[in-house]
Design a protein that fits this description.
single chain, mainly alpha, 2 domains, two-stranded parallel sheet, 2 strands, MULE transposase domain-containing protein, MULE_transposase_dom
C-alpha cells in the first residue's frame, strides 16, 4: 500500500472528493471502474463520490476502520483476536468458522 496522490482541499465532503477522484481517475485512465476495488476509510461524501465517478468499481471500508467502529460497541481482547483472524483468512472454510465464532462472541455480549 502506498500513496499515489494527495491534495489540499477546504474540507472532506462530496464536492472535494468528486473533484479529486475525477482528476485521479482521469489520470489513471479509469472510466467506469470495471475490475477495480477501492478500499477507503469512512470519510463523509467519499462513498457517494466513488459511486458516482466509478459505478462499476467495488468499494469496501478499510478493516481497521471497521474494527474501530465495532470496538466502540463491543470491546475485548477475544473480539479483537477473532476479528483480525477473520480478516487474515485465505480459505473459505476458515473464514466461515471464524465468522461463526465472531457471531457467537457478539451474541454472548
Amino acid at each position: 500500500m502506498f500513496p499515489i496522490a494527495w491534495v489540499v482541499v477546504e474540507g472532506e465532503n462530496y464536492d472535494s472528493w468528486s473533484w479529486f477522484l475525477g482528476l485521479l481517475f482521469d489520470d489513471l485512465g479509469i472510466d467506469h471502474g470495471y475490475g477495480w476495488t477501492l478500499i477507503s476509510d469512512q470519510q463523509k461524501g467519499l462513498e457517494y463520490a466513488i459511486k458516482q465517478r466509478v459505478p462499476a468499481a467495488e468499494h469496501r471500508n478499510c478493516a481497521r476502520h471497521v474494527y474501530v467502529d465495532l470496538k466502540k460497541k463491543h470491546n475485548g481482547h477475544v473480539l479483537k483476536s477473532c476479528f483480525w483472524r477473520i480478516i487474515r483468512c485465505i480459505v473459505e472454510s476458515e473464514f466461515k468458522r471464524a465468522l461463526n465464532e465472531l457471531a457467537a462472541i457478539l451474541a454472548g455480549i
